[in-house]
Design brief:
It is built from ten helices and ten strands. With about 325 residues, it is of the alpha/beta class. It has two domains: about 160 residues, Response regulator (Rossmann fold); about 120 residues, 3-Layer(aba) Sandwich (Rossmann fold), CATH 3.40.50.2300. The strands form two sheets. A six-stranded parallel β-sheet has the order 2-1-3-4-5-10, sandwiched between helices. It has a four-stranded parallel β-sheet with strand order 7-6-8-9, sandwiched between helices. It is elongated and about 65 Å long. Belongs to the bacterial solute-binding protein 2 family. Keywords: Signal. Its main location: other.
Length: about 325
Amino acid sequence: MFSRKWIAAAALGSLLLAGQAMAQDKKVIAVSIPAADHGWTAGVVYHAQQAAKEINAAFPGVEVVVKTSPSAAEQVSALEDLSASRKLDALVILPYSSEELTQPVKAIKDAGTFITVVDRGLTDSSIQDLYLAGDNIAVGANTAKFMIDKLGGKGDLVVLRGIPTVIDDERIKGFQDTIKGTGLKVLDIQYAHWNSDEAFKLMQDYLAKYPHIDAVWANDDDMLLGVLEAVKQSGRTDIKLALGGNGMKDIVKKVIDGDAMTPVETPYPPSMIKTAIYMTVANLVGQAPVRGTVKLNAPLITQANAKEYYFPDSPF
């Protein structure tokens, strides 16, 4: 497994070696990402724009263009506009949803463009020259292992899903496979689209429907915020654990403070988009060819190591 620091350092080092020699052969890299509709994507937008600013300033031979889209349909339109207006040497894309973006990205790939996919994989992985993501199966599995241990191997759970994507499927698989054969029972599992307001409403429904719940897995920290508020307003005391994932600074702070309901967290840094952009540039200039899949670790964040993951000035 690669660490984020090693990957970023290697990619950046290779770019520095390329230097100004690329100026006469300008490469265009389009970066297509969802708009900042929740905390994690706000972090993605921030880090993508930072990468574009740094690369465009340092390397006149490379132009990085960042486009954000508030829906899958608008991301498809943005891709069509980008590919029609200029020749794209590379596309770095975090798909709004996997299924709807697969064929549009394939069309760009077929035109000879290098494709880097981040986080939400396409349904046809052969389109991807480079895929960079966190280990979503580990996010689900490591959370489940902690719940099994903390609850003594038995209890009633409710689960919130994100949106229909490969990464959501992987997180759920990791979680469900790990609790299989234990006394942990999932009472209900529904989508809340990685949205705090939707999660708040869904958790209210769960609380009304189930008189006893031992633990909640929100799958994502934006949803966890909604869950925690719903539990707080309900006054319920039966819920022992409410866990999320992604490493939001507000949740990591809870871990640092020894919060009883949210004592652990799993990282899934939005800065992975910046790493992916640097790695893509390195591929184009022939300094650090990387193909295939790069996965970032998902170690459990506990009170003992949480300060290493706490960045109070981060947008997420």
